[in-house]
Structure formats: C-alpha cells, structure tokens
Design brief:
single chain; mainly alpha
Length: 78
Amino acid sequence: MEEVIKILNQINQKLEELSKKEDTPRLIYTKELSEKYPINRNKATQFCKKYGTDFGGYCIESDKFKEILQTEGTKIFM
C-alpha cells in the first residue's frame, strides 16, 4: 500500500512539473470559442476541425489561433 502511495505521489509531482513548463501549448476548445466569439458551437467545431485537432474534443492551440486571426481576420467565422 505504501508503494502505491509513493508511485502516485511521483506521478503527481511529474504532472505538476509539466503544468509549470512554459513551452506547453494552451488549447482552446470549441466551447470556449463559442462563448468568447459571436459564433455557435457548430461553427467553432468546423473551425477546429479545419485548423486544429481532436484532443479530447476539437480544439486549437492558442498561438495557432492568434496567427490565423491575424492573417485571415474574423471573416473565418462567417
């Protein structure tokens, strides 16, 4: 039992270290896109399918999203 607790503590410590890393990309999911921008969730899902990935649900990296907004503008949601 003590060995299991020790292993779980090690896993928890590694997860904390990963979350503190600066180079870990932030993911924006379709729900967040539909809440922050004037689009419905279906449009947000189509956008993430086209430009993003399916990682536990359709999402896009925040840096890639910024890049697309800068080059294409908000017309991509139309």
